[in-house]
Amino acid sequence: MKQFTSVHDVSDPFQLVQEALALKAQPHAHTDLGRNKTVILVFFNPSLRTRLSTELAAKNLGCNVMTLNVADGWKLEFADGTVMNAGTAEHIREAAGVMSQYADILAVRSFPGLEDKEKDYADQIMRAFMEHATVPVVSLESAIRHPLQSLADWVTIEEYKRRKRPKVVLSWAPHPRALPQAVSNSFLEWMQQAPVDLVLTHPKGYELDPSFVGDTPVIYDQEEAFADAEFIYTKNWSAVYPYGQKPEVEKDWQITEAKMALTNKAFFMHCLPVRRNVVVSDGVIESPKSLVLPQAGNRLYAAQAVLKSLLENV
Amino acid sequence: MKQFTSVHDVSDPFQLVQEALALKAQPHAHTDLGRNKTVILVFFNPSLRTRLSTELAAKNLGCNVMTLNVADGWKLEFADGTVMNAGTAEHIREAAGVMSQYADILAVRSFPGLEDKEKDYADQIMRAFMEHATVPVVSLESAIRHPLQSLADWVTIEEYKRRKRPKVVLSWAPHPRALPQAVSNSFLEWMQQAPVDLVLTHPKGYELDPSFVGDTPVIYDQEEAFADAEFIYTKNWSAVYPYGQKPEVEKDWQITEAKMALTNKAFFMHCLPVRRNVVVSDGVIESPKSLVLPQAGNRLYAAQAVLKSLLENV
Amino acid sequence: MKQFTSVHDVSDPFQLVQEALALKAQPHAHTDLGRNKTVILVFFNPSLRTRLSTELAAKNLGCNVMTLNVADGWKLEFADGTVMNAGTAEHIREAAGVMSQYADILAVRSFPGLEDKEKDYADQIMRAFMEHATVPVVSLESAIRHPLQSLADWVTIEEYKRRKRPKVVLSWAPHPRALPQAVSNSFLEWMQQAPVDLVLTHPKGYELDPSFVGDTPVIYDQEEAFADAEFIYTKNWSAVYPYGQKPEVEKDWQITEAKMALTNKAFFMHCLPVRRNVVVSDGVIESPKSLVLPQAGNRLYAAQAVLKSLLENV
């Protein structure tokens, strides 16, 4: 593995899931691998879970970690040929080139603006780091993907599944704000490679980008989709068409005990943070079927598996 | 010790003071204790001394440390049953549950609003972490207590006292802003367990909460209180009734050389930061009797003693 | 070496350059030197390169590092005798005294206001730390100097020079904002001790402070200055007289391919961040003669040489 920005960077995703599970069993078995190696985490948006789990993953492997929050302070130029006499103070070519000299791995979090689909789906910040960094780049979530989350999700499904090929439903749920499609996009492209029967359910108007949906069946009736499900993976996202909007939805798409009762004793999954009693009822998230904490816990081992794989090639 | 949020969590405070002094003599004698252990520090308010001393204490014990400043970025919900469709984005149940998976010890700083006494004295943030974290919680100052400061203060008194049972005076002093009562509350409850004769002095209108004052004698005449004192511990606080206000004070309560001359060659103590020539005169804080720097230095060993004790039980 | 705030703190600068080159060859040869030692980095202004390179330098030597960004949160008082009843919350005497107890080396970045020359050139923040800290102080850039940058620059020149005594030109270049003189001041005082022929070129009105220019020849015609040059070191600065202003400049002082063609195949140097096509053309900065990335890379070894030298005396 030369970088980790989507499932397409991983030659054998299932093997990576197994690696994460092995690290969960023995998180400190490789504390020498990262000796004198440095991971720099760059956050263009603040982060809690991703920062803590990735920092700890790097430390568990014996790496140095340096974390940079650049929310406001660092105005990067991404366009080539610009006369930089306005707001931007440094070109990504220099920024990535400099940081590559201080790091063995560069991990980056960016975020969509949710105003211009073409611009967001070009994934400019992540692609610029991929192009100009001279060390492996790890996505800590980009404008359109969140592969570390999806890997952790797969690890969790692998741990909790009751049969070889469970039915997994990705269900839209309501939210007061317009959110990115990154988690859902990534979940689809990872699950399409997993030994599961994947179904996507959401209200009309919330169709995801076809390049991520692929052949995954879409069922617009949430209750129908839940039949026989063994995992309900829930996430809000804003519309792709018209981009970033929140079209009205007639029914209540919140995940409730009544809806969970339609499934085959399904587990409930969500990447967190989650709005209780909007996305999911207290009853569901606090039930023994709720996997939200194990999922977050597995973020650590997902990150550690990725960093380990990259360090072995550095 | 299972957590460290007040003196009531400590079965033998004097023993903890002795532990801190032992660590001061040999700060690097236990660098293996924290190997592969992680301390997460969460600051809901910015911090200088507390952050540096606690980070270093953890590192002296060989721990990983991850520090999170969440001043603005992280809107937590503390109430149960809320429909979270407004400002809060994550429930403390998930937040504490997630961080507990990345940490062996969770240390938290919060702060009072100074507008609603009942709310502040319920100490909501600290109590929520105590309830929902699954690892030991350390208070880095809460709305109503600052136990690491008080432990460092006791260590300092232990180092400098000239006889077995010195007279210690906690004296209010002026300040341009309305400040919390946390340091003073904690100092009272720790000193009430220490081998000292404790006296509290402040202007009328600045009575502290009776649950912290207990049997400690209150003398409203600062000069009378200072007679025979061997330690003058100074701190401003805003009124408890009416809560968070700053009632007018007739006399000047600043700690001056003239007032220190009334004592029994007392040492001057303050937790810092301190407003010079408002709280205390330059002459007093720069005199050989000033212990403000040793106090701050002892913050390190107080934190290290607490973390060591918790790590031994993890 | 007892501190590192200017070239005047270094008894043998050339020896320090050699030390940096030795560390570049073997960056991890001294990982025990900093065991149980702590470096605190205090940034009164945000930083990318300086923070990352200095943190990593300290870690390469086995030190603990704690980084404090105090841009807004920490209002320090520098004047003695002040009645601190207004905006400042802590006196530098306490602040430096406290941090000195948690650190073996204190590294500080400050910045000029560019409004009052006398005040900026008094270098108040750096001098206050030098006076009140009880551990060695390292400048991470002050109001008037940036010695770690200059040391890295010298290291780079040493690596790339083609003969014993190359001609080095420090050239002003345009910039949309008013910038400090710190990098240029420091470059002059370091190069004046280096085995180079140093020339300074800038438009009339941009004369640097005589105490830094010394005997260095000034040529107002940029093209004339470039003749035979082997290194073009470029930097914008605002005027010293009238202080912090940006007087109009008639010609275009941008570094272009045409101007580089006037030199003796000179290398291009800049400390970064740089405004492309304002300070320097894309063609120059992307040419094989551009040393901007090696310079930034050498920041690591410059910092490491300085910390190593200080740690050997701690």
Explained architecture:
With 314 residues, chain A is of the alpha/beta class. Chain A has two domains: 7-146 and 299-313, Aspartate/ornithine carbamoyltransferase (Rossmann fold, 3-Layer(aba) Sandwich), CATH 3.40.50.1370; 149-295, Aspartate/ornithine carbamoyltransferase (Rossmann fold, 3-Layer(aba) Sandwich). In chain A, 36% of the residues lie in helices and 14% in strands. The first copy, chain A, is built from twelve helices and eleven strands. Chain A has helices spanning 13-25, 49-60, 92-102, 117-121, 124-132, 147-160, 182-191, 210-213, 222-226, 257-260, 282-285, 292-313, and strands spanning 38-43, 64-69, 76-77, 90-91, 105-109, 137-139, 167-172, 197-201, 218-219, 231-235, 267-269. The first copy, chain A, has a five-stranded parallel β-sheet with strand order 9-8-7-10-11. The termini of chain A are close together. The mean pLDDT of chain A is 97.
CATH architecture of the largest domain in chain A: 3-Layer(aba) Sandwich
Which pair of chains has the greatest number of interface residues, and how are they split between the two chains?
A: A-B, 29 and 28 residues
Task: Please state the average pLDDT score of chain A.
Answer: 97
CATH topology of the largest domain in chain A: Rossmann fold
Number of separate strands of chain A: 11
Q: Report the CATH superfamily of the largest domain in chain A.
A: Aspartate/ornithine carbamoyltransferase
Q: Mind telling me the CATH class of the largest domain in chain A?
A: Alpha Beta
Number of domains of chain A: 2
Largest sheet of chain A: 5 strands, parallel
Rounded radius of gyration of chain A (Å): 20 Å
Distance between the termini of chain A: 10 Å
Structural class, from secondary structure content of chain A?
Answer: alpha/beta
- Runs of chain A in which pLDDT lies below 50 for 5 or more consecutive residues are none
Helix content of chain A: 25-40%
Strand order of the largest sheet of chain A: 9-8-7-10-11
